[in-house]
């Protein structure tokens, strides 16, 4: 019997977590790891104790902000990072698995928190119809290793 690679296990978990999202527009999951151990998990959606978009606005999702983004969304990466920090975990040198490559604001948070590697499943730029993955470009420019997930590797 072939044992699964940790990359496959963690990305599978991130994909499963995305199904917990209350977002009507996109479901994203994230797993933070260090030395093959899970530090934290997250998925996108509104802050706990506010509205669940799929229940409050099932047809359209939450109202947009001034840039057209979801006004209530906390991104999966943010949730994973915030939960880890809230519980005293060190993120220095950790790896983030996410089902969607980070947006630029999340990339800044990832870099600042000391995460050294990001593995993503799908492109944020492709999802948003942008010409480049600004978050990936930012992270790469400042020395964070970013790779697109390939099963079995």
UniProtKB/TrEMBL annotation:
Entries under PROSITE patterns matching the protein: CYT_DCMP_DEAMINASES_1, CYT_DCMP_DEAMINASES_2
GO cellular component term, pick one: cytoplasm
Residues the record lists as binding Zn(2+): 75, 103, 106
Alphabetized InterPro entries for the sequence: APOBEC/CMP_deaminase_Zn-bd, CMP_dCMP_dom, Cytidine_deaminase-like, dCMP_deaminase, dCMP_deaminase-rel, Deoxycytidylate_deaminase_dom
Active site: 77
Molecular function GO labels: dCMP deaminase activity; zinc ion binding
Gene3D superfamilies assigned to the protein according to its UniProt record, in alphabetical order: Cytidine Deaminase, domain 2
This protein's UniProt keywords: Hydrolase, Metal-binding, Zinc
Keyword Transmembrane helix: no
Necessary cofactors: Zn(2+)
Keyword check for Disulfide bond: no
GO biological process per UniProt: pyrimidine nucleotide metabolic process
UniProt domain CMP/dCMP-type deaminase: residue ranges: 5-133
Family in the record: Belongs to the cytidine and deoxycytidylate deaminase family.
The protein's name: dCMP deaminase
